[in-house]
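Please fill in the sequence for the structure shown.

STRUCTURE ENCODING:
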């Protein structure tokens, strides 16, 4: 993997309502070195459509793109994304297509129509105490909902993942994952998405990331993974072997997540074990995907 990628882009994602989002941040690290830098949006705050356009038209050559979202839903635990649902998709790409089709009228790549669908709502935990009858799996030993195999790996590493079927609270990842799936579908195969797609010998690739993994490898605990000052960010960057970014005082945690994750991708992308997690299989890769760095 040495020298395989020339650039490293981290995307801190948001599933919030509306067009523009303070929760979306992009940061780029150059393979030749230097501090990671934020990619500034054309207007105040990125829109999801602009991120899609950037990935389609402005992405530097041979970039490893890490997107902080779940690229699929749990499948292996029950043998289906939506057990008992007649149209349950067979793989991740079919899942992305279903999400996008049911949400075609939702503006700004939102996914409200998907979770409000009468047949699909029972699989999600939603606001107002609405936990669907299918939200939990019978063998779950926690209250955080169904896990993919990669989320079990994250938990074994000391993280506290939540189910992509969870739409409630600060730890919810469902909305960001579902909106992200619409973006992945609209990429239309232009960029390979590992491990749903095999890793090609050249060109840019998208992977799923979990920014807490980057923070842990930069000396932070899982419970204190969010960085809100330039001083703390530069301490973490130093551990990753990255030069510091310019600035002092407060920084929003979306920007710091993106900056730190870009530097982390640059540091670890050449390590073979990151691309060969022991608990994945061809079936898991095709249906659930994997979080880069979890092994």
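FILLED IN BY: designer on duty
SEQUENCE:
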């Amino acid at each position: 993997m040495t020298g395989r990628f020339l650039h490293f882009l981290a995307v801190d994602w948001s599933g919030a309502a509306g067009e523009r989002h303070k929760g979306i941040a992009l940061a780029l690290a150059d393979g030749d070195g230097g501090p990671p830098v934020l990619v500034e949006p054309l207007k105040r705050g990125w829109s999801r459509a602009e991120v899609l356009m950037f990935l389609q038209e402005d992405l530097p050559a041979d970039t490893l793109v890490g997107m902080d979202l779940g690229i699929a839903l749990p499948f292996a635990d029950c043998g289906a994304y939506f057990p008992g649902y007649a149209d349950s998709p067979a793989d991740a790409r079919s899942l992305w297509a279903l999400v996008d089709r049911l949400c075609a009228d939702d503006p700004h790549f939102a996914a409200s129509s998907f979770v409000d669908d009468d047949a699909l709502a029972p699989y999600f935990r939603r606001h107002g105490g609405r936990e669907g009858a299918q939200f939990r799996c019978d063998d779950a030993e926690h209250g955080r909902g169904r896990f993919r195999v990669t989320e079990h790996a994250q938990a074994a590493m000391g993280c506290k993942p939540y189910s992509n079927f969870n739409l409630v609270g600060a730890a919810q990842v469902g909305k960001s994952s579902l909106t992200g799936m619409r973006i992945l579908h609209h990429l239309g195969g232009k960029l390979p998405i590992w491990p749903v797609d095999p890793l090609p010998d050249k060109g840019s690739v998208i992977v799923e990331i979990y920014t807490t993994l980057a923070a842990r490898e930069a000396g932070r605990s899982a419970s204190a993974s969010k960085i809100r000052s330039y001083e703390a960010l530069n301490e973490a960057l130093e551990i990753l072997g990255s030069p510091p970014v310019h600035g002092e005082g407060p920084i929003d945690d979306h920007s710091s997540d993106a900056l730190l994750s870009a530097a982390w991708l640059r540091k670890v992308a050449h390590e073979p074990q990151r691309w060969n997690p022991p608990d994945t299989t061809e079936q898991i890769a095709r249906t659930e995907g994997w979080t880069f760095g979890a092994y």
